[in-house]
Specification:
Blueprint: H1 3-13, H2 30-51, H3 53-61, H4 70-91, H5 95-98, H6 100-110, H7 112-121, H8 129-154, H9 162-187, E1 201-202, E2 208-209, H10 213-216, H11 219-232, H12 242-245, H13 252-283, H14 292-295, H15 298-317, H16 319-338, H17 349-377, H18 380-394, H19 397-407, H20 410-433
Antiparallel strand pairs: 1-2
Length: 441
């Protein structure tokens, strides 16, 4: 029996793998690593769908009888971003403490709370606004899991495959954003199998709407993720207490990569959450105005697919160049979009949509590049911590974008994002992508 086969047999008998080092073939089992990746990614996709459940439901709340002002809706959609960022600061420390198996099982179970909560809230339009805010915060659990999942997955793969593994996991996980925004307009149109007794709501135009299905449809899949994690996942011997993990904050590159990832994923996640409301508020007063739910999912899906597809390319050519090109493309996309935020005709919407898709496309490139870079810049345990920390800060994107849009005009906001993207793109070039840079990988 080969060493890898022995490791696999041992993993089935013992939840902890005492002899595990991906950098050496005799102490690494690729089948176990890839199995871990797919199960964790399945749970992560559900996490992102849960995180963006509020942004998908919010534009329809007033249609079924709520009377929420635009500012209240912006706050409602922004709160999951705040919660996701705060909870990522917790989840970032959990992988070396809890291990992958317990972490993924617990996280998947917690997702049921916001799913069930929004199922009930969508059926009762007398629900107080503070309860809606609390449920929006609970949806942030889905955003918080990312920093733990990505860090723990990085323990299972050698450096030569981290771009592919983390690119696939993050990209397919990000797909949960677009998935939620894509399926919600469909599943709210009928009673789900076995739940027909849950009566629909009446929309403003008299149509029947099963808005509660947005949360309800996810619950069985979350329970399946709990079972898969408990049965098939294992823990690798990477351990560290809270104090030991704090050493990443003494490293300059932790802060540089934090700024760059805030540019890429912060903008991606924030604009994905707010795109429907931006369409509604900027173009909603025109005759034949575009339906926000018909377009809000396109950009997030494009960015997720680009991120997943770029992982193997980053392994081949290094992540730095993808981060730099992604940042440069985001500069162009945000600058172009700013010209379509004070429209005089609904026809200008197509220019706005093209600019937004450009932003999401290049954000996907930059997201893939950064997650290839960090395992190359830092040792394995510190790389996991750096991945978790940068993703935690970037998770504030939906909150930052949402609150900014309540304080300044969309045009001013996109100009500010353009300036920040220029700065971060320079950081990527100067420290990582230029000829002779010390960490070109």
């Amino acid at each position: 029996m080969s060493a890898a086969s022995s490791a696999l047999v041992a993993s089935k008998l013992n939840p902890d793998l005492s002899n595990w080092d991906p950098e050496h073939e005799e102490t690494w089992d690729s089948r176990l690593a890839w199995r871990t990746l797919w199960i964790t990614t399945f749970s992560l996709t559900l996490s992102f769908a849960t995180w963006y459940l509020v942004s998908a439901i919010a534009p329809r709340l007033n249609d079924i009888g709520y009377t929420l002002a635009p500012g209240q809706l912006y706050w409602l959609v922004a709160i999951p971003g705040l919660a996701g960022g705060l909870l990522r600061l917790v989840f970032m420390f959990l992988p070396p403490i809890m291990g992958t198996r317990a972490l993924v099982a617990m996280s998947s179970a917690l997702l049921v709370l916001p799913m069930l909560g929004w199922t009930l809230a969508a059926r009762d339009t007398t629900t107080p606004y503070w309860v809606l805010l609390a449920l929006a915060f609970a949806a942030g659990i889905g955003g918080g899991t990312f920093s733990g999942f990505m860090a723990s997955t990085s323990y299972f793969f050698p450096k030569r495959l981290t771009g592919t593994a983390l690119g696939l996991q993050a990209g397919l996980g990000n797909f949960g954003i677009g998935l939620m925004q894509l399926i919600l307009p469909w599943v709210v149109g009928f009673g789900l199998l076995g739940t027909a007794a849950l009566t629909p709501q009446s929309s403003a135009d008299g149509d029947l709407v099963w808005l509660h299905n947005g949360g309800l449809v996810l619950i069985p899949w979350a329970l399946l993720a709990v079972v898969l994690a408990a049965v098939f996942l294992r823990r690798v011997p990477v351990t560290a207490n809270f104090r030991e993990q704090m050493d990443i904050f003494t490293i300059k590159h932790t802060w540089i990569m934090t700024a760059i990832y805030l540019m890429s994923f912060g903008a991606y996640s924030g604009l994905a959450a707010q795109m429907g409301l931006i369409i509604l508020n900027v173009y909603g007063d025109f005759p034949n105005a575009p339906n926000p739910l018909a377009f809000a999912f396109i950009g997030p899906i494009v960015g997720a697919l680009v991120r997943a597809a770029s992982g193997p390319l980053c392994d081949k050519w290094g992540g730095a160049i993808f981060t730099f090109v992604g940042g440069a493309g985001m500069v162009v996309g945000t600058a172009v979009t700013a010209f379509f935020l004070n429209p005089t005709s609904v026809d200008q919407f197509w220019g706005f949509l093209a600019g937004m898709i450009t932003i999401f496309f290049f954000a996907g490139l930059a997201n893939a590049g950064t997650f290839k870079q960090m395992p190359m810049i830092f040792p394995k345990r510190q790389a996991g911590g750096a991945i978790a920390w940068t993703s935690a800060i970037a998770a504030f994107g939906p909150f930052i974008v949402g609150i900014s849009l309540t304080m300044i005009s969309p045009t001013a906001f996109f100009i500010a994002v353009t300036v920040f993207s220029v700065f971060c793109t320079w950081l990527a070039w100067h420290y990582y992508a230029r000829p002779g840079a010390p960490f070109p990988g």
